[in-house]
Amino acid sequence: MGHQSEAILENKLIKQLVGLGYTNVSIPDGNALVANLKLQLEAFNNDSYTDKEFDTILNDLAKGNVFEKAKKLRDRFSFIRTSATGEAEETIYVRFFDSENWNKNLFQVTNQVTQEGSYKNRYDVTLLVNGLPLVQIELKRRGTEIKEAFNQINRYQLHSFWSNHGLFQYVQLFVISNGGNTKYLANNKLQSVKQTFFWADTNNKNITEIIDFASQFLNPNHLGKMIAKYIVINETHKIMMILRPYQYYAVEAIIKQVQNTTDNGYIWHTTGSGKTLTSFKASQILMEVPEVTKVVFVVDRKDLDYQTMKEFNAFKEGSVDTTDNTNSLVNQFLGTFKDKKGVRKDSDLIITTIQKLNNAISGHYRNKLEPIKNERYVFIFDECHRSQFGKTHGRITEFFTNSQLFGFTGTPIFADNASKNDLGKRTTKDLFGNCLHKYVITDAIKDENVLRFGIEYVGKYKNKSNAFFDIEVEDIDKREVFNDPKRLSKIADYIIARHSQKTFGQDYSSLFAVSSIDNAIKYYDIFQQKKEAGEHDLRIATIFTYGANEDSDFAIDALPDDQMSQAAEPASAYTLSHTRDKLENYIADYNAMYNTSFTTKDQQQFENYFKDISKRLKEREKITFDDEKDRLDIVIVVNMMLTGFDAKKVNTLYVDKNLKQHGLIQAFSRTNRTLGDQKSQGNILCFRNLKKATDDAITLFSNKDAIEVVTMPDYEAIATKFDEALKNLRDITPTYQSVNDLASEEDEAAFVQAFRRLLRNMNVLQSYTAFEWDDLHISEKEFEDYKGKYLDLYDKVKRDTAKEKTSILDDIDFELELIHRDRINVAYILKLLAKLKDANTSEAQAQKKAIIDLLGGDIKLRSKRELIEKFINENLPHIKDEDAIEEEFEQYWQDQKVLALGKLCEEEHLDKAQFKALIDAYIYSGQEPIRDEVFKCLDNRPSILKAREIGERILEKMKEFVEVFIQGMTG
Q1: How far is the C-alpha of 68 from the C-alpha of 57, rounded, in Å?
Q2: Average pLDDT over every residue of 900-926
Q3: pTM of the shown model
């Protein structure tokens, strides 16, 4: 079993699929695929097509990209059928897929289809629905890394899926498996292995064996339903999204509840697990249930109203008209709502804040809604752990007598963490009834849908007698000590010293949660004073509400015009005008930093300030984000942004406040969104002793045994794992020079995998404040030498691929993002060159080698090494004044760029001006140009046979040009 080959795996799977209801069909090549498609479409549509008619259908199917074809699959195509004399007889409609009755589609299985594009590719197992390839399964023998199957799919997309009328671009889902591990993913261009999922049962037990996966996921009924109902066409990002198993089970549970009962219910899905997508899909399907009048999606804060609207509209453009005021909401309920252009819009889906909903069923609006109070409304409450514990909940259920309520929460309210108000202590179950589906933080960590927390405590401070002050002791002077400016200044120094380490050289951002608005003001002022003194260059902002009291233990906040802080109940008045003046000054600093014009003096402008901070953090993950210009390092908050705010490029939370229960889990969870290989955990740096509070919170929302699952091991445990990985590396290559003696590609692959394991451990180890090279059994220099050999092998694979050589290293993921740590750019290199110019002869040689080694070790600057080395050797000796180095380097770089562009255009017969404009557009937008735009730059348009190959080659050269001359070269 351990040595089961791909062929055996493939044959067993096909036999199983035939038993599940698939028809086995032999399709050796593209011609056979087209012939089979004609027969299947005829059978599915109960019609027959002439060759001419089928060519018309085929030509339409060939148009568009993967995203456009996904929409076409779910649509109908029409053509005019003509008589023998050529006269129009009737309009014929051709369907490609039946989304309503998915069992009526025709399911086939085939294997080893060969297609030729840039290269000849042979695909493993293909599932055809009505003749179109909708699922592609790539298998690897048992024991092989599943990533290799993923990388193979990416190659097929690039090399051959587009050939033969682009029929393989209709693939909706990929399945990758090595027999023992099986995952699925949607078909998108910019895919990551992080977007591959295990299927699971309703209790979140993963189904990993290919046999079990095929039985449960690939049976025609379930697969048909997934394609019909559970793939989301995201219009904003122009991608397909597929629901994960827990999302599927939650939606199914809600639909079953609506169709069969009038009971309420709630979904407990941990923070960061994609509740917005789940609730959108539930809303979308519920809108189709005939008995349901409208679906009302309720958020509890104005900023989430905006955020949810954007995300819902991303899933389905125009699906949401947000309400500006209560009157608009009332009109939406009545079906008389008009947009800003005066066009009537009667949507089956309403998004509103709980405050507006409360207003709509109170006062004079209530009478307007009287006629519809008995209609069947389904209310879905986002983050229902916060918004549902005041009187509004009762008003909704009392007014809408025939309503059904569903809550989504990552941290439910139990008896242990319930707060008492006028209505007593109430739990999520008291308000919503039974939990319909549960997916807790341990499930999400196991599935790699969220990250673990790496928690470090910096907890004790010396008093004047040099004894330690214990933060656990209830002491009359405790508040005084916590708020002491000297303590706050020490903490600021600690953050300044370690921020780069925690954020991979400022590549990520952080939040700093503090205990009060007064302390937020103190901290901001301390950081600004230290910045003016030249102690740091961190970009720091702060936001807190000046209209509500934020000083509480729980993460609850609201924008200032919202009338209710929790469950639509009145907020405390905040009277300190001093606070607002301070915030106004801090916003002025922000305006100066980013050339904006926000203020607290205008309600809308303050909201826009909040949105701008959110957007700046959220959009940092985008390829087009200008890090030098738009980066924000730290946001100081009291409670704002500690719940309901998601940004993948936030990886660190500094904490100087007491947190507990759901407030603690919510705040910590701002850091643990997954993003690539480098971000291995959410960093939590606590300046108070929250150990017991953390353990209690994790136990409450999973169980006591979960503490070790949710939090990272301590530094010593990671160091031990590093030592084990180092021993494994040295067993394969005792020294870094041993890499030169590796005899075969298999040996090279073993080295790559061993060093990659070491890199992963180093990536985690270096994020601990206790990290010291002296603790390890390898020096920094030796580690860098090994890394150089690792990157040399990566370069070799790139060169071989360009020469169309195949290698077993092709499908191994080098995880290069683990290597780039420091903010090394042209400004940094120029500083080193200035030092080199000043150095005496003996020092200069060592410094020169250090610079070259640095360039070789940084993946983003490796491509520039040759050019910078040339500048050091040929230009630097002739520069007399070190102040002129920057100017001379910029001129040199510009000259080299012009030469390289000229050479590229000459080699490929491109119009230089047009091609430069194309490159500029690519740099600005980050969007790869389409081939037609490239062809317009050519002296002569290539033949159809050569077009694809030439287009791809020019695009690769263009990207290489940008990588060398543009990326990382802004200082």
Answers
A1: 16
A2: 82
A3: 0.77
